[in-house]
Amino acid sequence: MLRYSTCSASVLFCTLALVAGFAVYGILVFFLQVGYMNKDDTLMCLSGPLEADDPKVLEVLRNKYLDPPMDLPYRPIMHAMMNLGKKSHTWPWINHYIKLLFSGHRDGFFIEAGALDGVYLSNTLWLEQEMNWSGLLIEADAINYEALMKRQRRAWSSPTCISSTRYPKKTIFVSHSVRPNSQIMISPWSYRSHGHELDDDIDQSDFDADYRSYSEVQCFPLISYLAALNVTTVDLLSLDIQGSEIKVLSNYLSSSSGVYIRVIVMEYEYDNMDVYFMTKMKHHGYILLAKEMDYIFVKKRDRILQRPEVREILRFTTKRAALEASKNSTPTSNSSQR
Ligand SMILES: *[C@@H]1O[C@H](CO)[C@@H](O)[C@H](O)[C@H]1NC(C)=O
Ligand SMILES: *[C@@H]1O[C@H](CO)[C@@H](O)[C@H](O)[C@H]1NC(C)=O
Ligand SMILES: *[C@@H]1O[C@H](CO)[C@@H](O)[C@H](O)[C@H]1NC(C)=O
User: Fold this and answer.
1) Tens of pLDDT along 187-246?
2) Distance between CA atoms of 296 and 288, rounded to whole angstroms?
3) Residue located nearest, by CA, to atom 14 of ligand 1
4) How many angstroms separate the Cα of 309 from the Cα of each of 40, 101, 108, 291, 315?
5) Do β-strands 196-197 and 169-178 pair in parallel, antiparallel, or remain unpaired?
6) Does ligand 3 lie within 6 Å of residue 331's CB atom?
7) Which ligand has the minimum distance to the alpha carbon of residue 226?
8) What sections of the protein cross the membrane (predicted)?
9) CA–CA distance, 54 with 52 (Å, rounded to integer)
10) Cα separation, 61 vs 229, whole angstroms
């Protein structure tokens, strides 16, 4: 009895001592490390966000957020509604222009942001399959990205979003999908294509079967991706990112990255185009080639502009813009200018 209680007492004592020892050690290590880390992290944060081309940013992007092109056969992709989308939206219009600008142009490089599943309303699949292009597909929505990976496209892909700021950041991303049990006759991908940053919400009130979910997504400035992939010429940049297009392009124009982007296709769902943005594009040598619901810009003096059919389109667009400008200017402003 006595021996037993002594023993259990000493065992208890030893256990307690051991636990206490570990606890003290743990707390010490925790405070030392966290203390140091916090100090470093805090100091780093105080100096401001990391630059788009900071080596640390590029390393993380390369190692964690870029999946290499797949050298495998494409997966068949026919889900029933796949062709529905091709008649809607502005896909036929954009596709027409991409073929007109780039048929016969092999081995180019594209960036498509808002890549969706890599097939539905894809602006770049034709270039990749028929013209042997490579490129980068950016898709922030996790479910879309999973589908994209299954298609086995021969381009880089990234489960991120292009930052609307000039530095990397995390953002809340809003995904749209069709409500379960909805009877709506539209491709689910059409809904899934409306994901956007929380801050850049656009009115989707026409989406009566809309179901929203939220996730945290890492974003990088456009030039971070290009630097990480060592790309200096982009033949086509296709932006369909539901609201942050202007910010993304403005940041690119303001950077001195030395990257040359030849053609930009930009979705624009608002009624009135930002005049300041258009002036900035012009100032940086981008010519508006065509506009519908979307805008197509070409860099001034690009060899594409030497094609007769492209010159013809440009003439038409320029004439129409001049006509619209004269219609919009009020008699007072007209007379005051003269
Ligand atoms: C396609 O492009 C790759 C480089 O991206 C090149 O190595 C290959 O030869 C090209 N294939 C054809 C058929 O042009
Ligand atoms: C880009 O260049 C860096 C440094 O030269 C290299 O480490 C990296 O692998 C290259 N990345 C690609 C995608 O070519
Ligand atoms: C503006 O002035 C020009 C010439 O002064 C004239 O031809 C044109 O019709 C005027 N436009 C409007 C909208 O009044």
Assistant:
1) 666 666 776 776 666 655 555 667 777 888 999 999 999 999 999 999 999 998 767 888
2) 6
3) 132
4) 58, 9, 21, 16, 10
5) antiparallel
6) yes
7) 2
8) 12-36
9) 6
10) 10
